Amino acid sequence: MGVEVPKIDFTKIEGRSKGYYVICLIWLIICVIGAYAYYLIWIHGDQLTGLNNQVPWGFGIAAVCYFIGASAGSLIVSALSGVFEKEEFKIFSRSAAFFAAAMIVAAMGAIFTDIGNPENSLNFLMHFNPTSIFSWNAFLYSSYFVVCVVYLLAQFEEKKFLTRCIAVFAVAWAVLVHSGTGGIIGFIYSNDFYHSPLTVPLFIISAIASGLGLLIPTYILTFKWTKREYDLDLFWTLTKIMGAMVIILLYCFIVEGFEKGYMPSSHEAFLRMITSPETPVPYVYWFGQIGLMLLALAIMLSPYRKTEKGIFVASLLVAIAVFCERYTLVVPGLSYPYEIFPGYEVVKPFHIVPYFPTWEEWAIVLGLLAGVYLAYCIGIKIFAILPEKAVKVEEVSKNE
Questions:
Q1: How far, in Å, CA of 205 to CA of 368, rounded?
Q2: 10-337+350-389 belongs to which homologous superfamily?
């Protein structure tokens, strides 16, 4: 007796309905508004943003970290069947890989728009500096996109061994890419508010959480709107993985909070970050980062945890909460004063510099996210990346 895994039929959607074109038009309009906001900043300068000399990293850099994380998380979901031989997740392998490629493009778009002049955006590509983490990350991001595309092409060719080999490499590369991104902030030794050994693993954990937080609602809506059969238990399995990541994240937040609150160099800044009403950071931290994760976890533990609405809302809350975590990671380290000359008294100490993202920054980030979903809508129409039905793959016996 042998075991045979039924072949999964990946197909395109027709994409001829009025609803399909309306959705694509909505994404396109948001993209155009984002492009217009970037044009205004390019013409008039960064004074249209909330950034300043002390806070050069803001909403855009938080979006970079978020998009890269969501991309890495999506690719890990895509590789579950290839790396861990979880055949029930093979139905997501193509679409998640496509989603990962689109997300890394959005991340690079966020970098380009945050730098400002497009000509300056090419400097780190044309002039590689081996001692700069930014140069290395430019290489990692661009090569990661190539890995996503090659992995997707291997799946189209249906070469099982080759696909599995590339899947293993892709997961390792995704971890390396996001570790490099976490290293940019976590390895800044001169700023005690940034420096933390937990930053790199936190980036990986939150990447998986945000990737699932975006993919699960996307899949539910996609299968409902295209009238394709789907098994809610399969999404519940992904939700449980996401829930485990949320629990680990909350634990790490507690550990990091005690660490930063205990250290004399960051004690005052940390207390101000979680209590001071001078900036939106405390609200983002308590209501966005911590509050939404606890609410999502409560839903995942409630009697409604296995319902479609429960899974959808919990996943969406996690996706938003992780973005809030990226925001509170990037902005407070610059907004709040830190000790430049340890052991010396500063005659004119730095004060809290309030940072509020402007509508232009919001428009650019939402435009990039809309671009991802516009590419996804077009991709499922052009390429056969969606299964005919999303149900658990059953193993059937056959006579040899």
A1: 23
A2: Formate dehydrogenase/DMSO reductase domain (1.20.1630.10)
Phi, psi of 111 (to 5 degrees): -65, -45
Please tell me the pTM assigned to this model: 0.91
CA distance linking residue 147 with residue 384, whole number of Å:
19
Q: How far apart are CA 16 and CA 351, in angstroms?
A: 57
Q: Which residues contact 111 (CB under 8 A, 6 or more apart)?
A: 64, 121, 141
Can you give the residue ranges of every domain in the chain? 10-337+350-389
Question: What is the C-alpha end-to-end distance of the chain, expressed in Å?
Answer: 6
Spacing of C-alpha 178 from chain mean position: 10
Question: Please, are residues 315 and 70 in contact by the beta-carbon 8 Å criterion?
Answer: no
Strand 389-390 and strand 229-230: the pairing is: parallel
Question: How high is the pLDDT of residue 344?
Answer: 60
What confidence tens digit (pLDDT) does each residue in 278-300 have?
788 899 999 999 999 999 999 99
Instruction: State residue 333's pLDDT score.
Output: 81
